[in-house]
Amino acid sequence: MKRNSWLSNRLLRFIVLCIAFLVPLTASYSVLGAAANSTATEVPALSISANPGGADPVLSGETYLQTITAVPWLSTVSDKTNALLEGTVFDRQGNLYFLDSFNSTVYKVTPEKKISTAFVTPKDLTPATIKISKDGRLFIAGLGDFKSTGSIVACNPDGSNMKVIIPPSAGYVIDELVFDNKGGFYFATVKGTPTEPTGGVYYMSPDFKNITPVLKNLCFPNGLVLSADQKMLIVTDMASGRLIRAELLSDGVTVAPAAQGGENIPYYFTGSPGPDSATIDSNGNIYVAMFMQGRVLVFNKMGFPIGQILIPGRETGSNLFSSHVAFIPGTDQMIICTSDGPGTPGGKGGRLFTARGFAKGAQEYQFQ
Q1: Dihedral over Cα of 216, 323, 332, 78: its sign
Q2: I need a surface site. Which of 123, 157, 320, 326 has the fewest CB within 10 A?
């Protein structure tokens, strides 16, 4: 009797152990089977429509920024499908000048918003930007052959009396310039790549006789902004996607030692090609046109992003070639030039948009 009881207990324990092993094993097979069945019908998929901006999405880290959408200012500026608008600048009479780089045309828009062709530049200039001196002359930077024949010329607002300030033989490829309070100017030569940084920023003396290197080893430097106190030079380095701040000593051409500010990179841009020309407001905020992204990013004077302006149509591939921003003098209203760009299917040329910034535009050299 005792032996039978002992066998019964052993058998019972064996059955319990088998059940304890088989139940979770069966459950595991059930889960795997369910997962296999769901794989065929419930695989999650990424969707580009989930990103703001369609094919040109806004970086997730920038979606939190205060964001506004610009509105049309002049709907059709140039109907040429290869138009590339650049170089917006206002004169003291309130006229807006800008250019079509690939068609060598300088446009003028009156305060009443009547547009006309001011003049046509020499084709080998390949104009990229316009700035205005105190004497009212237009200073036009040119890319030349995009290799070594860039130049800067100065002329009357109608294109007459054109004089060479920096000749093509100097070897630069000049895309941007900005005057300082002395009447000299900084200019950027858009050479270089991330693997061969041969670009740089230079300073032309007020008598237009001497050129001094300021920043070297850059990667296609494009936008230039000078702070109101003339101590901070801000550069957008397109090919490397960098916003560069350089603290200058009193001579305007020497970068301060690291202990006094030196150079720093407060922001790295995402996307291609990246940051183009820039401007500044009276509070020191920096407005950077994002080329082939259809938007303008705004930074405070320390280089922190604080806002952005989207251009209508960017979500469908239009108006992506945003290249330049200018404030209407004495106001916080900006004019942004953009175009569909050469080779864009169904491209409709260039347009001007407008939006308001955080503060009034900074006073440019011609108004001082």
Answers
A1: positive
A2: 123
